[in-house]
Amino acid sequence: MSTEKDSASKPLDFIRQIVANDLASGKHSSPITRFPPEPNGFLHIGHAKSICLNFGIAAENDSVCHLRFDDTNPCKESTDYVESIKRDVRWLGFDWGEHLYYASDYFDQLYDYAVQLIKMGKAYVCHLSGDEIREYRGTLTEPGRESPYRNRSVEENLDLFSRMRKGEFDEGACVLRAKIDMGSPNIVLRDPVLYRILKSRHHRTGDKWLIYPMYDFTHCLSDLQEAITHSLCTLEFENNRALYDWVLDALQTTNNTKPRQIEFARLNVNYTVTSKRKLLQLVNEGHVSGWDDPRMLTISGLRRRGYTPAAIRDFCATVGIGRRESWIDMGVLENTARDDLNLHARRVFGVLDPLKVVLTNYPEALTEELIAQNHPQNPEMGERILPFSREIYIERSDFMEDAPKKFFRLSVGREVRLRYAYLITCQEVVKDAQGRIVELRCTYDPATKGGSAPDGRKVKGAIHWVSVPHALRAEVRLYDRLFTVEDPDADKERSFMDFLNPASLSILGNCMLEPGLAEADPDDRFQFERQGYFCFDPAASGPDAPVFNRIVTLRDSWAKLNEAE
Ligand code: ATP
Ligand code: MG
């Protein structure tokens, strides 16, 4: 599977260039990559970037990308998350084939590796508390101090480590640390913790383990185990690369097969958060309906919102791979969706805020079948039949009582085109006791069937409509950004929660859609003419109450807030 936008003409990004060089020099015959999620939440748009990169490089080189669950923290992980991650990677269009792995499958080997380090005098059991370890670690400007437990004998360390494994110590009583260099300018190398005691049940290994390896120890050795050639991660791991290399160098000698860690800039999208911890908080505190809430930039949220896998892959290709941290505007993501939907989405009529119109000179018993195009720019997408009758719904905003001259839609005495139907002229406004407009009474010109006047008279406005007796009543959900500020984390005094957009969801409960939408499939996407792109949301729908989500507006309303129609 290749991303739609990569092509031979585009220069290689720096990682693909490294891979190409390694193949050219014969260092590797083919690159083996991996995507290593921790199953402690659902995947988000940032993960999509990493997935497209890792699986993309493998696919471009007829090689394989492993899906490896980095499941070393039993307290926060679950099989539900594992399943959601598999579903999302597949949905994005990628396939790990038989290469599905779990770091927990390596716990025995990792333990043996730790024992090996102890035997080499390169690891020791330390009884300092977490706070003390931090305090002894020093700062960027001051070296650390050595732990009083640093120089115990190999025998003592072997004994203590095996007793840690047996559960003889409480959580936090001791840890296994690498013996590297407390004076290193790189703080990561100041005797990092390799193993900790956690008396938690693991979703795969059950109660077998009471000690669990840390990320830095696990990751490089999992890469080694799977013969990964290029281990791609985000820039915050740059300092950890020294530890990655230290562990591998300490435990093996053949440099040929040593995986290489390469860092790239993570994806940040404005007006949202993409840390799993924060997404979980939004879910747990009920600010969204779940991990797949269509306002969340999780893969499952984007899927439910109506984004296609191709749009997300295109977005990742557009963003590209580099080493400089940057923010991507949400509008870029929305535009990729528009580009994709504009080509493929069927055009339909949906009235979101209905106002009834009675055509007083149209025969009461008549229903006509009018022909409408599914995509005016793409005749190959065919035509459909729209029923037309004496009573129709139009958009309330397509009528105005004291309309200015430039209002080209309906007003008393003015004529407008009902798309694919007739020219109609408004004769009268009907109001209820509160003065609210409840109905328009109009006349239609029978000579204008199809929407054009034989005498050539000019009618500027064209509006959409739905026949009253044929309408499909539906709920439509409109989404706005989840946060009101570009970077919800920028204000260190306040929580990102303080910047939630109270208007991020609008529910329109009484929309009238053309009848064909009763057969909408979850994979269909539509352009409701003049309203945006929409999809059917089966998860939110009841048996008689279909729900449609707006995927995006037709144009970037944030960039063109004040643009006139
Ligand atoms: P989060 O920060 O959201 O909790 P994480 O890094 O803890 O994410 P992991 O499950 O460890 O989540 O991530 C799996 C892979 O996805 C890692 O290789 C990580 O570097 C990559 N990744 C995570 N977030 C991003 C992002 N925003 N942009 C690019 N890659 C990302
Ligand atoms: Mg992580």
Q: How does this model look, in words?
A:
Strand 25 (526-528) and strand 26 form a beta hairpin. The protein has helices at 14-24, 45-60, 79-91, 107-119, 130-137, 154-166, 215-225, 241-251, 276-284, 299-305, 309-319, 330-344, and strands spanning 33-35, 65-69, 100-102, 123-126, 175-178, 193-197, 211-213, 230-234, 260-264, 267-269, 326-328, 346-348, 350-351, 354-359, 368-373, 383-388, 391-395, 415-418, 423-431, 437-444, 462-463, 466-467, 472-479, 505-513, 526-528, 532-536, 547-552. The two termini are 40 Å apart. The chain is 24% helix and 22% strand. Strands 12-25-26-27-23-24-13 form a seven-stranded mixed beta sheet, covered by helices on one side. It has a seven-stranded mixed beta sheet with strand order 21-18-19-20-14-17-22, with no helix packed on it. It contains twelve helices and 27 strands. The relative contact order is 0.10. Helix 2 (45-60) crosses helix 11 (309-319), helix 7 crosses helix 8 and helix 11 packs across helix 12 (330-344). It is α/β, with parallel strands linked by helices and 565 residues long. Bound molecules: adenosine-5'-triphosphate (ATP) and magnesium ion (MG). Adenosine-5'-triphosphate binds at residues 36-38, 46-47, 49-50, 233-234, 266-267, 274-276.
Short synopsis of the structure:
The protein is an alpha/beta fold and 565 residues long. The chain has helices spanning 14-24, 45-60, 79-91, 107-119, 130-137, 154-166, 215-225, 241-251, 276-284, 299-305, 309-319, 330-344; strands at residues 33-35, 65-69, 100-102, 123-126, 175-178, 193-197, 211-213, 230-234, 260-264, 267-269, 326-328, 346-348, 350-351, 354-359, 368-373, 383-388, 391-395, 415-418, 423-431, 437-444, 462-463, 466-467, 472-479, 505-513, 526-528, 532-536, 547-552. Adenosine-5'-triphosphate (ATP) binds next to helix 2 and strand 8.
